Amino acid sequence: MPLSRQLSSSRIRDDGRGIPDATVARLPIYHRVLRSLADDAVHTISSDHLAQRCGVSPAKLRKDLSHLGSYGTRGVGYEVDFLSYHISRELGLSQPWGVVIVGVGNLGHALVSYKGFASRGFEIVGLLDSHPDVVGEKVCAGETDLVVQPMAELEKVVSSSNASIAVIATPADAAQKVCDRLVAAGVRSILNFAPTVLSVPVGVEVRKVDLAVELQILAFHEQRRVDDLTPLAQVMQA
Amino acid sequence: MPLSRQLSSSRIRDDGRGIPDATVARLPIYHRVLRSLADDAVHTISSDHLAQRCGVSPAKLRKDLSHLGSYGTRGVGYEVDFLSYHISRELGLSQPWGVVIVGVGNLGHALVSYKGFASRGFEIVGLLDSHPDVVGEKVCAGETDLVVQPMAELEKVVSSSNASIAVIATPADAAQKVCDRLVAAGVRSILNFAPTVLSVPVGVEVRKVDLAVELQILAFHEQRRVDDLTPLAQVMQA
DNA sequence: TAGATTGTTAATCGATTAACAATC
DNA sequence: TAGATTGTTAATCGATTAACAATC
């Protein structure tokens, strides 16, 4: 990784209270756009231009970056590689993370074959499913092929693969039990695709992606749009 | 739908400024949990219990619900069916919404076969892909089978199916062009799975699900956990 | 009535924004 | 130096929380 500035190994954390959640959630976007700029041989970029490509305001971008340290140059902008490196380090992408996927149905298959994982430093190191038809199936995951293991092997797979992140892609009714076993096996970061509220001990980080919820939020806005177009109802109420 | 109270048809919106985004994002969760309670023949529930099942604080739940109107009974709690109905109406789930999916790769297939859509009032009414191998494929979507249409048919499919929501599940480099065509065809609610920042005219609502971003946020927390466990580095800095 | 629980208030917290001094 | 752009400040905005009056 060619970096034209000396890389400091110290990690600057603004006020010691850490980086705000809202900022952390945007860092991956900045990082992806910066990598893409680097591919296009762009070496320097201003907060105005970078912000536009990331879909945020320049003020927000600069505020976000200020939490990581002072990696820009006044009057010039940000060095793409330099900033990209510091974001990736802050995000923990400088080391690879092992991921176990539990539930290899349609969604699980899609996740395994998703190239965005491997390219961003995640390695799928285990696949688990309870269905006999799926267990034993060889699934192509990046460079290596993986064989779907039976659910009984969960603890073994987690510990032997040293996975630190687990993805739950099971039906809703299986999710909590799977979650409990993952936590007991030492996993403390979980990405949950099952439409269930998981309960976990403190210290375990759960993120949730609910496809139906996303559509329902869109439906809400779509409906409000329809309502606004028909002010008749409002007139009738008044 | 059995409701033991008279259903008012007026829509109460607290202060006229609408429901806060953060609240809207949680309404689908409340709704799902309420439906599940109804299935278990639970007729009444307090904010404390409902909040626990939804993974939020009771104060937050009551505040959220207060934006919809006053649908509880002091000293008693909420009637499950009554509250569920009002949330679903607010979310726009009382009418079905047509969804077009563009990009029928692994993820697209997973989305089509996802039962959570149909069960929540969404109907997949069109599938589009640019790849000749996929075009023409018959995909089972709920009750009816759908045939994957070539990308050239996008405008025709959107208008003839009266789809109001589109899902983009294409590779990143195709997403913006697809988005432009969808918007031109009249779609104003888009769920984007491509790792790209889409630019759309004002009035178009875009929601984004980025699987890699979710993992990266988990990686951040995972790394911070490792850092905290090794205070040696901090000692050495001091 | 007494006990329970909602809906609302007011305080706090965190995130966003605009403006500008610092500085390359 | 003059022009450009960052990093920071202070104000604003929105979301969360705890407490409690209203009321079933």
From TrEMBL, chains A, B:
Q: Which organism is it from?
A: freshwater metagenome
Keyword hit for DNA-binding: yes
PANTHER family, per the entry? REDOX-SENSING TRANSCRIPTIONAL REPRESSOR REX, REDOX-SENSING TRANSCRIPTIONAL REPRESSOR REX 1
Alphabetically ordered keywords of this record: Cytoplasm, DNA-binding, NAD, Repressor, Transcription, Transcription regulation
For the CoA-binding domain, which residue ranges apply? Answer: 93-197
GO biological process annotation, one example? response to redox state
Cite the InterPro entries for this sequence.
CoA-bd, NAD(P)-bd_dom_sf, Rex_actinobacterial-type, Rex_DNA-bd_C_dom, Tscrpt_rep_Rex, WH-like_DNA-bd_sf, WH_DNA-bd_sf
Supply the name of the protein. Answer: Unannotated protein
An example of a GO molecular function for this protein is:
DNA binding
